[in-house]
């Protein structure tokens, strides 16, 4: 509970405390011990604490003494008063006093009722201290959860019809066995999926979250088909449950980082708790929506059976749109290779470090296989011996020394089913390299890419890279980019701290965590 305390110093608070006397009695030592219990007992009924005049609803002090402490909570402003016998906490309106039992004419104020109701709803759903973009995220989450919940209700009804629940010819044991088998297969697939994609939950959080959300929507569509193919119930239900379990694993893995991005006061537990409240309430609204639709069509069995197929494309589109827009309001402060590359490209082109909110707008939220289609993409890892290695790469590895924490070379790879030949830049990081070395290496790689995109390099890289001229120009470019890094790393690192980026670590996937070791034979 937040409270705002206002203090206005006052030099004179002339009120008489009950244990003070106007006279100056002289107490003898023999009488002191007998008087102390009497004074203590007299204090107990006199010093009390009343909330909003609760103990005496008819209290309205004629001349109360204002104490310089004001409390603001739940949209109400209260102040402490001394009435000569006890301390009271009463509602105040300006400088006046409004006791609960005060004789103030009743006046219904609609604006105040709406304001109080809005504040109560906000306090119920929204944590106390969150970032400004949290409200927008919750609005889109509401849209996503309501329509997703309604779809799940319709899909469950379809599966019940498929296994024959509610019909006399249904076999209870067979239905239960099918249900257990499809749940077991789904959970097994969830374990395999989580283990194989663990690092991607951090490095490609938004992309994985949206991709698995599409997978979840697809699973609902498969469940809706079970009444059409009741003999294939186990196959269809198992496929749908596998997709659902994979989506659930992704949701549980990516929720903590998303909540942490909103918890500006380290109140992660509060944000997580409010998120559960939101999910339960929004899901119940979706359940009510599905129930109302069923009630409206209960007299038309044919239309009720075809309703899920009519609503599925509409509700699915709204659901995915809400997820997509909600992820746009998630501004992650942690550094990944993709976010750091966006920051460095902006720094090289304009000397400006974008904020997490600005980088969030440039982040791709799309299919995982559409990642990295830009020309001269930068990859962190090691050379693939099965790929075609250029002479530039071999000469670069030969020039690596014991003082280097990384090296940069070119690589040739083939993309897609058409096996299109493309050239990229590879950043190899040494074992034991620090976070600063990774940033410096990516800064140098981005600077090299900018030079390679120039008109001169476009023509030379298409030719054979084995000529002495190409090798000479390449190592000159590497030396120039190293000097650029030495000049720009300090200001870049300082601006990243100012813009609110977390510089404790860089999140890399399994491939990007591959390191090389130096051996001087």
What topology emerges from the helices and strands here?
Blueprint lengths: L28 H18 L2 E3 L13 E9 L2 E7 L4 E7 L2 E3 L11 H16 L8 H30 L8 H25 L3 H4 L1 H20 L8 H30 L5 H29 L4 H28 L6 E2 H14 L5 H7 L15 E3 L10 H8 L7 E10 L4 E10 L5 H18 L2 H8 L5 H31 L7 E2 L14
Parallel strand pairs: 1-4, 6-10, 7-9
Antiparallel strand pairs: 2-3, 3-4, 4-5, 8-9
Features:
UVB_sens_C; 5-stranded mixed sheet; single chain; UVB_sens_RUS_dom; disordered N terminus; RUS_fam; Protein root UVB sensitive 4; alpha/beta; flat; 3-stranded mixed sheet; about 525 residues; 15 helices; Growth Hormone, Chain: A
Order of helices and strands: HEEEEEHHHHHHHHEHHEHEEHHHE
Count of discrete alpha- or pi-helical segments spanning 4 or more residues: 15
In the CATH scheme, what's the topology name of the largest domain? Growth Hormone, Chain: A
Residue-averaged pLDDT: 78
CATH class of the largest domain: Mainly Alpha
Percent helix? 40-55%
Per CATH, the architecture of the largest domain is Up-down Bundle
Shape: flat
Number of domain modules: 2
Proportion of residues in extended strands: 5-15%
Over the alpha carbons, how many angstroms does the gyration radius reach?
34 Å
Q: Regions with pLDDT < 50 over 5+ consecutive residues?
A: 1-59, 94-106, 166-171
Domain Protein root UVB sensitive/RUS: 121-350
Family: Belongs to the RUS1 family.
InterPro entries: RUS_fam, UVB_sens_C, UVB_sens_RUS_dom
Protein name: Protein root UVB sensitive 4
């Amino acid at each position: 509970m937040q409270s705002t305390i206002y203090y206005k110093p006052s030099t004179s608070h002339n009120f008489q405390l009950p244990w003070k006397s106007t006279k100056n009695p002289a107490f003898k030592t023999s009488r002191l011990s007998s008087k102390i219990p009497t004074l203590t007992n007299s204090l107990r009924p006199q010093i009390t604490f009343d909330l909003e005049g609760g103990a005496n609803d008819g209290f309205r002090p004629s001349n109360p003494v204002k104490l310089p402490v004001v409390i603001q909570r739940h949209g109400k402003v209260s102040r402490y008063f001394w009435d000569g016998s006890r301390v009271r906490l009463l509602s105040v309106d300006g400088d006046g006093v409004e006791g609960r039992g005060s004789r103030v004419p009743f006046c219904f104020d609609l604006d105040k009722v709406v304001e109080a109701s809005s504040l109560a709803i906000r306090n119920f759903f929204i944590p106390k201290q969150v970032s400004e973009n949290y409200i927008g995220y919750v609005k889109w989450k509401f849209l996503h959860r309501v329509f997703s919940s309604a779809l799940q209700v319709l899909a469950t009804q379809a599966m019940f019809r498929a296994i024959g629940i509610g019909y006399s010819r249904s076999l209870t044991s067979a239905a239960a066995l099918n249900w257990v088998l499809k749940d077991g297969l789904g959970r097994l697939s969830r374990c395999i999926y989580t283990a194989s994609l663990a690092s991607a939950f951090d490095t490609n959080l938004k992309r994985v979250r949206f991709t698995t959300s599409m997978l979840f929507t697809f699973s609902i569509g498969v469940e809706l088909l079970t009444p059409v193919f009741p003999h294939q119930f186990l196959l269809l239900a198992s496929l749908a449950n596998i997709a659902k379990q994979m989506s659930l694993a992704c949701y549980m893995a990516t929720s903590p980082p998303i909540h942490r991005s909103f918890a500006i006061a380290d109140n992660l537990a509060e944000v997580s708790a409010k998120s559960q409240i939101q999910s339960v309430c929004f899901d119940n609204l979706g359940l009510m929506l599905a129930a109302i639709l069923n009630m409206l069509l209960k007299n038309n069995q044919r239309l009720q059976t075809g309703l899920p197929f009519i609503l599925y494309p509409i509700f699915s589109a709204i659901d995915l749109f809400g997820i997509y827009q909600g992820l746009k309001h998630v501004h992650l402060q942690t550094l990944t290779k993709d976010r750091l590359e966006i920051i460095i490209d902006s720094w090289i082109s304009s000397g400006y470090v974008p904020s997490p909110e600005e980088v969030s707008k440039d982040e791709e939220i799309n299919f995982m296989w559409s990642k990295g289609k830009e020309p001269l993409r930068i990859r962190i890892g090691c050379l693939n011996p099965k790929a075609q290695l250029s002479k530039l790469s071999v000469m670069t590895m030969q020039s690596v020394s014991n003082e280097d924490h990384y090296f940069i070379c070119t690589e040739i790879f083939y993309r897609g089913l058409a096996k299109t030949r493309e050239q990229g830049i590879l950043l190899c990081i040494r074992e034991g390299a620090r976070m600063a070395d990774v940033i410096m290496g990516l800064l140098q790689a981005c600077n090299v890419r900018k030079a390679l995109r120039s008109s001169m390099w476009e023509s030379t890289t298409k030719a054979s890279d084995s000529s002495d001229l190409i090798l000479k120009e390449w190592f000159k470019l590497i030396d120039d980019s190293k000097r650029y890094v030495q000049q720009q790393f300090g200001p870049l690192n300082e601006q990243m701290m100012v813009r609110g980026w977390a510089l404790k670590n860089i999140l890399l996937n399994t491939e990007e965590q591959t390191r090389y070791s130096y051996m001087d034979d």
